[in-house]
Design brief:
Layout: E1 13-17, H1 21-27, H2 32-53, E2 57-64, H3 72-95, E3 98-103, H4 113-125, E4 132-140, H5 142-158, H6 169-173, E5 186-189, E6 208-210, H7 221-232
Parallel strand pairs: 1-2, 1-5, 2-4, 3-4, 5-6
Helix pairs in contact: 1-2, 2-3, 2-7, 3-4
The site of one 3-methylbut-3-enyl trihydrogen diphosphate has 11 residues, from strand 2.
Length: 246
């Protein structure tokens, strides 16, 4: 197996499903929240790896619409942790030219107000950065995103702003949380689970999938690089026939 990375075919958009924090903690007899805390260094090492590789878009699934069903203590920790890491990492990311974006149901009243403010501030501060667009999929669920897009389009149709006959894939894409976000080329899920868990169902329609068997806190830029090498060995067909390149 060739181990060399081709700098000319770097995936444009890589999605990360950060999974395995709880198992990492359990293996060390620690509370699950210690696993989430340990996952922070893994995420930011991976962000640096994405910058080194020249990836333009990186998405990280940090809290799903289904994660509210966890123990109140864990949910509370994740809410606090997600805003605290913004506070601590924001300026360094800004200096590295990272644009921060958030995909999710941010109007959900269960999200603490100070958290919402941190997300808005980070978006505003970094909006002109061009090195890397980093999307936090926070309180994100793909089914909810698609349902919200459908509702928004219906409202516009009712108001006479959209002709229902013209609604197509582009119309739907334009009503997603981050309309300018390109489709995913590569989805990497750590921990060995092989599922999407409601992550970017629409945007991952033609993504390649890589499932490294490491728990998220053990993930780093070397794993990202390895996933990109694996991606480069795949043959993407987009519905065409083998060998067709036109
Ligand atoms: C992923 O790790 C982090 C979040 C969902 C926020 P988990 O907490 O799902 O860890 P496991 O899958 O239970 O090991
Ligand atoms: C997906 O992981 C959500 C995030 C990584 C934020 P989960 O651990 O919540 O997914 P399931 O429950 O294993 O499908
Ligand atoms: Mg999990």
């Amino acid at each position: 197996m060739a181990e060399d990375l081709d700098p000319n075919s770097i995936p444009r958009h890589v999605g990360l499903i950060l999974d395995g924090n709880g198992r990492w903690a359990k293996a060390r007899d620690l509370p699950r929240t210690a696993g989430h805390a340990a996952g922070e260094a893994a995420l930011f090492d991976t962000v640096e790896g994405a910058l080194e590789l020249g990836i333009s878009w990186l998405s990280a699934y940090t809290f799903s619409t289904e994660n509210w069903t966890r123990d109140a203590e864990e949910v509370e920790f994740l809410m606090w942790f997600n805003q605290d890491l913004l506070l601590r990492r924001r300026d360094a990311l800004h200096q590295q030219g990272v644009r921060m974006l958030f995909a999710g149901d941010l109007a959900d009243p269960r999200i603490p107000e100070h958290n919402r403010i941190q997300m808005a501030d980070a978006t505003e501060l970094t909006k002109h950065n061009t090195e890397l667009s980093l999307v936090f999929a926070f309180n994100y669920g793909s089914r909810r995103e698609i349902a919200e897009a459908a509702a928004a389009i219906a409202r516009k149709a009712m108001a006479g702003q959209i002709d229902p006959e013209t609604i197509d894939e582009e119309t739907v894409a334009a009503h997603m949380y981050v309309p300018e976000m390109p489709p995913l080329d590569l989805v990497v899920r750590s921990s060995g689970e092989h599922r999407l868990s409601n992550f970017f169902l629409w945007q991952a329609a033609y993504a390649e999938f890589v499932f490294p068997g490491v728990l998220w806190p053990d993930f780093d830029r070397a794993h990202l690089r390895q996933a990109v090498i694996e991606f480069q060995q795949r043959e993407r067909r987009f519905g065409g026939a083998e060998g067709f390149s036109g």
